[in-house]
From TrEMBL:
The species this protein was found in: Pengzhenrongella sicca
Domain HTH luxR-type, chain residue ranges per copy: 153-218
UniProt name for this protein: Response regulator transcription factor
SMART domains for this protein: HTH_LUXR, REC
Lineage: Bacteria, Bacillati, Actinomycetota, Actinomycetes, Micrococcales
Domain of life the protein comes from: Bacteria
Domain Response regulatory intervals: 3-119
């Protein structure tokens, strides 16, 4: 059973989400919250698998709440709700650690699929859409605060082998595992191994976090890091 916490300041929307989610035998809504602070208390008490998080709320917004949930409750994955598919606040929530975003206008089946996908550990955002968000909004957000090594290389890339670095670059460019395998002329099994190693070495939970980190390190979207 996948457990879900609903976080939205509009009670009517929470009711609608609850009705859709609880129509499925494998999903259960275990709690609700109307703002970020209550959401933090609910996550601590209920340990939901997925937090369906609105971004714009009074008091603590969804971005700050997402960052705290990801830092303190890694077992709970956050799926943020947004009005537009290219949204600076949605990107900020992804950068804070959310595993994906969903339009509020999404169909019920899309909502259910997104919840299941995030619960399974996969991101819910097309890499090419994320790159478009990065191109539009990343320069307006605070830097990650990582100090470069003496040679200018971002230290977060130091543990990667040359092949893993290439895999990360292709992930950041929006390539699927199938496309990466074709580009590097290796099997998809080999690609999956490389992707898993990249995630483990970077501490990335999924493709979304890997793409954002690659952008922050300058691997894509700017001058490439020196090796």
């Amino acid at each position: 059973m996948t457990t879900v916490l609903l976080v939205d300041d509009q009670a009517l929307l929470r009711l609608g989400f609850r009705l859709v989610i609880e129509s499925e035998p494998d999903l259960e809504v275990v709690g609700e919250a109307a703002d970020g602070r209550v959401a933090l208390d609910q996550v601590a008490a209920l340990a939901p698998d997925v937090v369906l998080m609105d971004i714009r709320m009074p008091g603590m917004d969804g971005i700050d709440a997402t960052a705290r949930i990801v830092a303190n409750h890694p077992g709970s994955r956050v799926l943020v709700l947004t009005t537009f598919d290219v949204d600076d606040l949605a990107f900020a929530a992804l950068r804070a650690g959310a595993s994906g975003f969903l339009l509020k206008s999404a169909r019920p089946d899309e909502l259910l699929d997104a919840i299941r996908t995030v619960a399974a550990g996969t991101a819910v955002v097309a890499p090419r859409v994320l790159r478009r968000m990065l191109d539009l909004f990343a320069s307006h957000l605070p830097a990650a605060g990582v100090v470069a090594a003496d040679d200018g290389t971002d230290p977060r890339l130091g543990a990667l082998t040359p092949r893993e670095l290439e895999v990360l670059r292709l992930i950041a460019e929006g390539a699927s595992n199938t496309e990466i395998a074709a580009e590097l002329v290796v099997s998809q099994t080999t690609v999956k191994t490389h992707v898993g190693n990249v995630f483990a070495k970077l501490g990335a939970r999924d493709r979304v976090q890997a793409v954002i980190l690659a952008y922050e390190c300058g691997l894509v979207g700017g001058d490439p890091p020196r090796r």
